[in-house]
């Protein structure tokens, strides 16, 4: 399986840019406090098959432990690292613009595997990128693989990015795409009762936000939400500290603060946030669709993802949680051949197949 296999999308482009913390150079106690957390070497907890990928970044971070991160640097590095894709001829891909919500701009989407006359399940996919970078086109090769693997129609949404368009702008784009997909199901060969939302990292956060909006507005009933290491809580790394060894690699607390502050249009981790903008702050989770959440045990998001899964279960939502041991954020993208990555994908693929089953 390739590095860009299903579930990576633009998230892989984003994550490859983030330097890990220099674990040997971290002074003082961890954010969570205490000698026990301080004594843990994060690298010692990484799955052996996943560790070689980190070595160049650990070496770079040793030379510059705390590089200055700005929106401009994220976007410059993202553009430099961007892979050039050649879409496969099959299943077919349509680059299309669909109507936005009233008073909102139209939305660009990529539709994969449309088959008029059929009643195929559909996946609405939202790309990753920390809420601040990424493009729907990045996900198309993976959506083509997903369309083939699951016999579905896949649609990737080019939602507007923060901070130029903070919440609720991206939600407006994603919801407009979902409405269009549902209302044009016959035209696309889609079964309107078998639509799922999926995303990785910030895309998983957007998928969770969209699922909440779909529940509240009552126009589209989703079959499931598939959340891969989703970005769910703006308080992580700000008003909610994390242990030193959690989030030490790839996507760190300072990265999280920039992404969420851009998305919310206010500093992350404050007393309040715009209603519906942060899944972890939503009080009532009842009525959300069956959920899969997958995350690595060393991912910055592991605690918030586990807590969200617990709250979903408490709310009566069928929920599957898979925590990959010794895995950092985006591990399946960087080392797809590792056993832990393959087991992770098998768990997620099983959840998708069950959601699509009739």
From TrEMBL:
Top-level taxon in the UniProt lineage: Bacteria
Keywords: Hydrolase
Occurrences of domain Alpha/beta hydrolase fold-3 (ranges): 123-332
Matches recorded under InterPro entries: AB_hydrolase_3, AB_hydrolase_fold, GDXG_lipolytic_enzyme
SUPFAM superfamilies: alpha/beta-Hydrolases
GO molecular function terms noted in the UniProt entry: hydrolase activity
Protein name per UniProt: Alpha/beta hydrolase
Native source species: Acidicapsa dinghuensis
């Amino acid at each position: 399986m390739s590095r860009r296999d299903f579930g990576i999308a633009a998230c892989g482009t984003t994550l490859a840019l983030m330097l890990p913390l220099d674990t040997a150079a971290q002074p003082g106690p961890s954010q969570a406090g205490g000698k026990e957390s301080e004594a843990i070497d994060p690298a010692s907890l990484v799955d052996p098959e996943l560790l070689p990928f980190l070595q160049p970044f650990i070496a770079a971070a040793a030379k510059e432990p705390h590089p200055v991160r700005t929106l401009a640097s994220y976007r410059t590095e993202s553009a430099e690292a961007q892979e050039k894709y050649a879409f496969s001829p099959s299943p077919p891909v349509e680059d299309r613009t669909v109507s936005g919500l009233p008073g909102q701009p139209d939305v660009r989407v990529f539709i994969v595997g449309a088959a008029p006359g059929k009643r195929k399940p559909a996946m609405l996919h939202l790309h990753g990128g920390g809420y601040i970078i990424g493009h729907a086109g990045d996900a198309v090769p993976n959506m083509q693989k997903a369309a083939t693997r699951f016999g579905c129609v896949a649609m990737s949404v080019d939602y507007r990015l923060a901070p130029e368009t903070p919440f609720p702008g991206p939600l407006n784009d994603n919801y407009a795409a979902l409405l269009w997909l549902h209302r044009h199901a016959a035209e696309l060969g889609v079964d309107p009762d078998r639509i799922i939302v999926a995303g990785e990292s910030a895309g998983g956060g957007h998928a969770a936000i969209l699922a909440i909006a779909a529940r509240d507005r009552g126009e589209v009933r989703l079959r499931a939400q598939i959340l891969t290491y989703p970005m769910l809580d703006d308080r992580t790394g700000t008003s909610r500290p994390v242990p030193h060894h959690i989030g030490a690699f790839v996507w760190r607390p300072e990265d999280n603060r920039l992404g969420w502050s851009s998305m919310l249009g206010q500093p992350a981790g404050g007393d309040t946030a715009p209603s519906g903008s942060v899944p972890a702050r939503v009080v009532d989770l009842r009525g959300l669709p069956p959920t899969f959440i997958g995350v690595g045990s060393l991912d910055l998001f592991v605690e918030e993802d586990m807590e969200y899964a617990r709250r979903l279960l408490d709310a009566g939502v069928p929920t599957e949680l898979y925590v990959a041991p010794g895995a950092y954020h985006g591990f399946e993208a960087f080392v797809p051949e590792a056993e832990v990555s393959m087991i992770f994908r098998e768990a997620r693929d099983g959840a998708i197949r069950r959601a699509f089953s009739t």
